[in-house]
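Lab manual, section 2.4: Encoding a predicted structure.

Procedure: take the sequence of the chain (112 residues), apply the prediction step described in section 2.3, and record the output as structure tokens. A sample record is shown.
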Amino acid sequence: MAQIQFSRGIDEDAIPDVRLTRAKDGSTGTATFYFEKPKALSSTSTDEITGMYLIDEEGELLTREVKAKFINGQPEALEALYIMRSPAEWDRFMRFMERYAEENGLGFSKSK
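Recorded output:
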């Protein structure tokens, strides 16, 4: 069970594009999530976006860094930033992403 939510209790169906960066010494890292046409922005959703919650059997990771992207006044995408401030936070995030990727058929490729 690995889910992403923008409102507690409501799983997001859209699969994000995720980009990772990490300091050379491994001390910090950043994950940028980009969701095109997420359920959280649909016209039928009345729930407030309170953050991005990454939930799995170990618990919950949370970021409040969530921005909506609009095109011609219509909500099109959500971008969320998750910052890891220690090697332990990086490892925990990667465990979540492995579970999420496995459940949603995502692949991982390193840039050069």
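Check your result against the sample. The longest strand covers residues 74-84.
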